[in-house]
Design a protein that fits this description.
The protein is an alpha+beta fold. Helices cover 32% and strands 22% of the residues. A hairpin with a 5-residue loop joins strand 5 and strand 6.
């Protein structure tokens, strides 16, 4: 059986049937590294992380370690973190500022753009100067930014980033994920990372808008505790969510892109007309002071202006994913903070999650402080939500290791026949919530890239 035949048997996204083997098969994983991570435009950082020449952060493209650095001419470079002499990493720190990179093994040194500067005793030992161009660090040739988000691709035939991000995806990223009409985002220094069991796809699909697990079972104890605080009328320092069923807020899943391009999946939407979340924001702001109240009211007016003429006016987003591996968490509200996650594969059965925290740039400091506190106490490893998810991922790995279970399809059929195209004049494909439309679209995109020549 050919690889494409095996893939089609494993991924029947139209009927919501996905074989478990896609998250366990080593051969598929090796193919996935070449066809997905070596070809896609991948987010590797944000320009605010490297504002000045010499600033750098470490990142990954799939399993390939890279350095994201601003060179002496202020150009953003992405360098493969591997010395061309013996293959040692030339940068061992997560972030910093430097005039260049020096390999700790034999001392070869490189400029900020990756050019070989020299090697110890170069002329004496080699009898000549080394060819600086030939022995420079590998540069990732395709590097581009989208409103501060830094993308890179190994594929020499990759389409321009503006083509990879389709029009619908750009609209949602600009207006809601990156909050450009509201002044944009401030990326906080540093990031959190953790390693855990679980194929990267298991983690990614959880971020696509899986509200089914959110309220049905996994986080039930968390919401019980939160409701107790809310009923007592306290401003709790942890992330809270409205009672959407009681309030009548309209939630939707979102799917954009596809056809071999970037796909934005899984933004939970709420209607401004219902005003439930705006009222919750105002209640929180009143406890923080007048400046916070004035900002929340201004923000609401500004968002209404941006959405003027739209028959349905979304308030914010809960969570989502930019294919393949950038998780987005908006928590519906600026009072709750937001964070982005990069899900880096570490073999077929493990992953690393790298998390950056962001706040709205123009928010008062009191709002930023409470938002950051709520992010840390909700989705970070020491928080009250993330450990529940990771425990499920580990159990999936333990239960799925035996090869005899790989061919049995898993059920991705929730709301299979209830997807709506272009509902209410909003970009993308919308449907009722909860559903698994986004999970089906995720595997559709994955299959398209895996089948490509």
């Amino acid at each position: 059986m050919s690889l494409n035949q095996a893939l089609h048997e494993a991924v029947d996204w139209r009927n919501g049937r996905i074989a478990a083997g896609v998250n366990f098969d080593e051969q598929l994983y090796r193919t996935e590294r070449r066809k997905v991570f070596d070809r896609a435009w991948l987010v590797v950082g944000h320009e605010q992380m490297i504002p000045r020449p010499g600033d750098y952060v470490s990142s990954y493209m799939g399993e390939v370690p890279v350095i994201v650095v601003r060179d002496s001419g202020s150009q953003v470079r992405v360098l493969v973190n591997r010395c061309p002499h013996r293959g040692n990493q030339i940068c061992v720190h997560d972030r910093g500022k430097t005039k260049g990179f020096t390999c700790s093994y034999h001392g070869w040194s490189f400029s900020l753009d990756g050019t070989l500067v020299g090697a110890p005793m170069e002329k004496a030992l080699y009898g000549r100067e080394l060819d600086k161009a030939q022995w420079s660090v590998e540069r990732v040739k395709n590097v581009a930014s989208f409103h501060g988000l830094i993308f890179a691709s190994f594929d020499p035939d990759a389409p321009p980033l503006e083509q990879w991000l389709d029009e619908d995806t750009r609209w949602w990223l600009e207006n809601f994920v990156l909050a450009l009409p509201l002044g944009g985002l401030e990326v906080l220094h540093g990031f959190h990372r953790n390693s855990a069991k679980g194929n990267w796809k298991i983690v990614a699909e959880n971020f696509i808008g899986d509200n089914y697990h959110f309220f049905a079972a996994t986080h039930h104890s968390y919401f019980s505790a939160v409701n107790a605080f809310q009923n007592a009328g306290e401003l709790i320092p942890i992330v809270t969510y409205p009672d959407v069923a009681r309030a009548g807020v309209t939630l939707r899943e979102l799917s954009c892109g596809g056809n071999g391009r970037a796909t934005l999946l899984g933004l939970g939407l709420v209607s401004i007309e219902d005003d439930v979340l705006h009222e919750q924001d105002l209640a929180d702001a009143k406890r923080l002071g007048r400046e916070a109240v004035e900002w929340v009211e201004y923000r609401h007016r500004r968002l209404s202006e941006v959405l003027a003429g739209r028959p349905r006016k979304p308030f914010g987003f809960m969570n989502g994913l930019l294919f393949p591996n950038l998780g987005l968490m908006g928590n519906y509200s600026p009072m709750l903070g937001r964070h982005f996650h990069l899900f880096h594969p570490r073999g077929v059965l493990e992953h690393e999650s790298w998390q950056w925290t962001m706040v709205e740039k123009d928010a008062p400091q009191s709002v930023k402080d409470i938002a950051v506190q709520r992010v840390y106490q909700g989705q970070y490893m020491a928080g009250l939500l993330a450990p529940d998810d990771i425990e499920n991922f580990e159990r999936i790995v333990d239960a799925g290791r035996p090869e005899r279970s790989w061919s049995r399809p898993m059920n991705y059929g929730l709301q299979l026949d209830r997807e709506v195209e272009g509902e209410s004049g909003l970009p993308g494909r919308l449907g009722p919530n909860p559903n698994e439309m986004n999970q089906r679209q995720f595997y559709r995109c994955w299959l398209q890239m895996m089948e490509a020549a």
